[in-house]
Write a structure and sequence with these properties.
Length: 80
């Protein structure tokens, strides 16, 4: 899932004309090295739902700050 997130972040950043930093599980989305804002993050979540067919937020918002935390939200859904 980390690869999918990194790939989609690459698309978002390319559209903004921003360089792609190195992305790892500890990369912070907002206020970190990624030049994205909350709208970009919302776009990422929508694209991830479209790509995976999973919505880990269906029952309500779940807190995440890093790429690894977001990827982990998809693990239980993928296992079921």
């Amino acid at each position: 899932m980390l690869d999918v997130i990194a790939e989609e972040l690459g698309h978002i950043l390319a559209e903004k004309g921003e360089p792609m930093p190195v992305i790892g599980p500890d990369t912070v989305f907002l206020g970190g090295p990624l030049p994205i804002d909350s709208l970009d993050l919302a776009t990422l979540l929508l694209v991830l739902e479209q790509r995976t067919g999973q919505d880990p937020f269906r029952a309500g918002f779940r807190q995440f700050t890093t790429v690894g935390e977001l990827a982990a939200l998809y693990q239980p859904a993928a296992a079921s």
